[in-house]
Amino acid sequence: MSWNGKKRHSATGFVAGSALAGGWYAATSALLSGTPAQTVPVIGAIAIASLVPLIAANVRATPARATVDDSVAQQLRVLKMHTMVNVVDTDNLLVEVNDLLLEATGYTRKELIGKPVAMLYSKDNRTTATEIRDLLRQGKSWQGETTLRNRDGSNCVTQTTVTPLLDANGRWIGSISARTDITSTTKLIARRDTAMTLHELRDDIWIVSEDNLELRYMNLAAKARFGWSTRPKNGQTVRDMAAERGCEDVLDACLRMMDIGDTYMTFSATISGTNFEGSIKWLNKGTVDGRLLIMLHDITERLEQEQLQADFISMVSHELRSPLTSIKGSMGLLLSKAAGQLPPKAEGLLEIAHRNADRLVLIINDILDMEKISSGRLDFELETADLSELVAESLRANATAHQRFGLQIKCHGVDMPTYIETDANRIIQVLTNLMSNAAKFSKPGGTVEISVDKTPENVCVSVRDEGMGIAPEDQHKIFQRFADMANSDRATKGGTGLGLSICKAIVEGLGGTIDFVSKEGRGTTFTFTLPVKTRHSGPENDFERLENVG
Amino acid sequence: MIKLLHVEDDADIREIAKMSLELSGDFVVEQCDCGEQALEKTLDYIPDVFLLDMMMPGMTGRQTLEKLRENPDFANVPAIFMTARAQPNELEELRGIGATEVISKPFDPMSLADQIKAAIA
C-alpha cells in the first residue's frame, strides 16, 4: 500500500488511502483510546494526512481500520478546518502544511515546504523540539504547548500533538503535528492571573488616570485601608485622597513624577501614621490610556524589626561590657600593683588574661560595627579633617604594639596637612586596623611604612609591612569575615577576623576603594583611596535611642 | 582634693572606680547606686564633679543630670558620663546634652583619674 493508494471507503472519499497509511496506523490508536484533549489534535493529524502527496511507498496500511463512516469523515473535515497541521520527514523538513497553519503563521506554502520545521518555532521551543524528536524516534507521541514564531515575529501559543509516521516495517519516516491556537486563551489567563495577583497582593495598589489623577482601581488591601468594600466612587481623585484621607505624600509623589516626566519613581509616604515605601509606574504615558500604577508597601513591621534588632544589639553590648569593665578594671589595678607586688608568674598569667579581655572588647566593637554594616546603618559624620593628623593619632594608638615588636615606623607625605572631608573617627579606625595588622604580621625589628599621596580629587594612603605576606591561595578571601588564613593565628595575634571587612565597608561607604598587594615572605601593602570630598549617601538613620545607652 | 560624686548601679564597677580614683591621691569619692539616691545625697553634698553611668534602673544618667541641673547650685558642675556604648556619634550627642566628657566602658583604671582631671581642668 502506498501513501497515495486507493480509496478504502467510497463514503469517505476525503479519507484517502494516504490517511489510512502510516499516519493512520500511528495515530488512530491514539484517537480511539485517547482522552478528549488528546483526540482533537490527533484527528486533525489524520485529516491532513489525507492531503499529503506522500513520501514512502511501503508504509503499512491497516485495512481493518478502514471502516470509518460518514460521520467520522465529516468530523475529520471539520477538524481539518479547525486545526493547524504540518508533516515533516526524518530530517525535520516540512513536507506539508495545511491552510490553517499558513493563515495563522502568515507564511506561504512555498516559504515553508522543504524548510526545517525549526523555523516555525520560537527560540524558547528549541529545547522542546529536541525532546520531541527523541520521543518520535522511539515511536512515541508527544503532547504539550509549543510556541510558533509567526512570519511577522509575533508568537502563537499552540496546544500540540506530534505523532510519528512509521513505515510497513515500523521504521520512523516522519511525523505529523496537529496544533490548536491557544494564544488568546493564554493571554486571557495571564491577564486574569495578573488581575487576581494585583487584587490579592498584600501591598496597596492604586491605578489612577494621568490626566486628572482619578482613581480607577484599588486592590483589596488599598480599599481595606480606608474601610471600603466597593471600588472608589466615581470621580474621586488622588487630590481628594490627600485632602480627606491624609494621602498628601502620594499626591506629592504623583505630581513630582509627572513634573519631572520620569516613568518610574520611588518615594516614602506616611498615611495616618503608617509608614510606606511607595513606587509609581507611569503606564502608556501621554496616551488616552495614560495611567499611574501606584504601589504602597507597608514598612511598619520592618521598622519594628529593625528597632528590635537595634535594641537587642544595644542590650547585648551593654550586658557584655559591664562585666568586662569589672574584669579588665580589676586586672588593670592588679597589674599596676594597686594591691601590691605580684609574683612574676602570676603577673605573666594576669597579662594574658588582660590582653584577652582587651580582645573581647575589640570583638564586641567589631560585632556592633558588622551589625551596622549588614543592616545598612553604618553612619558617617563628615567633617573636614587633616589626614596627616589622623595618621599621627593612629600611630599613637598603635605605639605600644610598635614598641612591643621593636618596629621602625617610616612616614611619607605627612609633614604638611592634607585636608579632606570625611569621617575622621572611622578613618582612624581603618588606619589603626591596618597599622595593627602590619605590626602583628611584621618580623621583630621590621619596618612599617605609611605613605599619604594626594591628587586634586583623591587621597591615597598605604601601609606597607615587611612581614610574612599573604599566601596566594588566601588572597581572595582577605576581606571576608572570619576568613581562615593559613598563617593568621588569631589567638596569638589578637585579631577578631572582622577588621579588614569592616575597613572595606568603611572605605567604600566613604566613596573610596581599598586593595592590597602581597608577596609571601616579602610583605604586604594595603592601600586605600578616598575622595577629597565625600558625598553624603542617603538619609541618616539613627534608630538608636540614647536612653538605651548605658 | 577633688570632690567627685559617682552614680553607678554596678557595685563591682563602683569599687574599681573608687580604688582607681583614690589611688591617684587627688579625689575624694562619694558613691550612689541610682539617680534617685544621687538627688537625695546632693541635698547636703556639693561635689566638684559628677561621674554618671548612663544606663541604670530607674532614672538614666541623662535624666539624673537633667534633675541635678534643676538645682542652680549644680548648673555649672561638670558632668562626665560613662557609657558601655561608645559609638562616635553617640558620644557627640551626650556632649550635646551637657556632658563635659564621655568615658567609654571598659575604662582603663590607671588613666581614669587623669582623664577626669583633664576634662575638668
TrEMBL record, chain B:
Q: Enumerate the SMART domains for this protein.
A: REC
The yes or no answer to whether the keyword Nucleotide-binding is present is no
- Which positions carry 4-aspartylphosphate? D53
What's the source species' lineage? Answer: Bacteria, Pseudomonadati, Pseudomonadota, Alphaproteobacteria, Rhodobacterales
One example of a Gene Ontology biological process annotation:
phosphorelay signal transduction system
Q: Which domain of life is it from?
A: Bacteria
Q: What's this protein's name?
A: Response regulator
Query: Does Phosphoprotein show up as a keyword for this record?
Result: yes
- Taxonomic source organism: Sulfitobacter sp. TCYB15
The record's keywords, sorted A to Z, are: Phosphoprotein, Plasmid
All copies of the Response regulatory domain together span 3-120
Signal peptide (UniProt feature, chain positions) = none
